[in-house]
Amino acid sequence: MDNAVVGYMYKSKELRVVANDRLRFCYHIARAIMENNSVTVSGEELKALVKSNTNADEFVLETFREKFFQSSTH
């Protein structure tokens, strides 16, 4: 996600931005932030996106342990 923040800054300065990421969801977020000029997320949509999910399990922890993140990061 860090590259999306930096990429957005350069986009706001009307510079050309090329971004990529090892994780697919980060790539899609960066692409959406940098290529989108018209669609916005409402406050309600944003709250829904970041609210706690009581049904979440440990999929990421179990699937990506030591592949993308060190155990201390989890």
SSE topology:
Elements: H1 2-12, H2 24-35, H3 43-50, H4 59-64
Helix pairs in contact: 1-2
Annotation keywords:
74 residues, mainly alpha
Describe the structure.
- The protein is mainly alpha-helical and 74 residues long.
- The chain has one domain.
- The protein has four helices and no strands.
- It has helices at 2-12, 24-35, 43-50, 59-64.
- It is flat and about 40 Å long.
Give me a quick take on this structure.
The protein has 74 residues and is mainly alpha-helical. It contains four helices and no strands.
Principal-axes shape call:
flat
* N-C termini distance: 17 Å
Strand content: under 5%
Can you give the helix content as a percent range?
Answer: 40-55%
Mean pLDDT: 81
